[in-house]
Write a structure and sequence with these properties.
Number of strands: 4
Number of helices: 4
Strand content: 15-25%
Distance between the termini: 28 Å
Length: 122
């Protein structure tokens, strides 16, 4: 059986705690986990965003799962909203999970329309 491959969508500028947790899992030899922590630092509407969007779409296509980590400002993240919408068009992984850091966080609109999304508090 092939190793699951998860595309993780989170607000790279606001949810650094999640990034650090994923990096710690990657560094732990007891976990069979690889994490690519590169995230877009380019405005989504800039001319430089095209190649980044293309690279992200390739990663989404190769994923077996999509995990969306919902932080306090995730619903306002234009990159996260693009990732969610794009995942639907590039053969979204069949397993989609949504983890909310706090039950008061607003889930991005694109996830509210997903049959497979499951919300739970982290």
């Amino acid at each position: 059986m092939a190793k699951p491959k998860v595309f993780v969508s989170y607000d790279h500028s606001e949810d650094v705690l999640y990034k650090r947790l994923l990096q710690a899992w990657d560094a732990n030899p007891d976990f069979d986990f690889d994490f690519d922590s590169r995230g877009p630092d380019t405005p989504i509407d800039s001319t430089a965003a095209g190649p980044i969007k293309a690279a992200l779409a390739v990663k989404m296509k190769s994923a077996t799962h999509l995990l969306v980590l919902v932080g306090a400002l995730s619903s306002k993240s234009r990159w996260m909203n693009w990732e969610i919408d794009r995942a639907k068009t590039v053969r979204c992984p069949p397993e989609t999970r949504c983890g909310e850091a706090c039950k008061d966080n607003t889930t991005p609109a694109g996830l509210l329309k997903r049959r497979h999304s499951v919300g739970y508090e982290l």
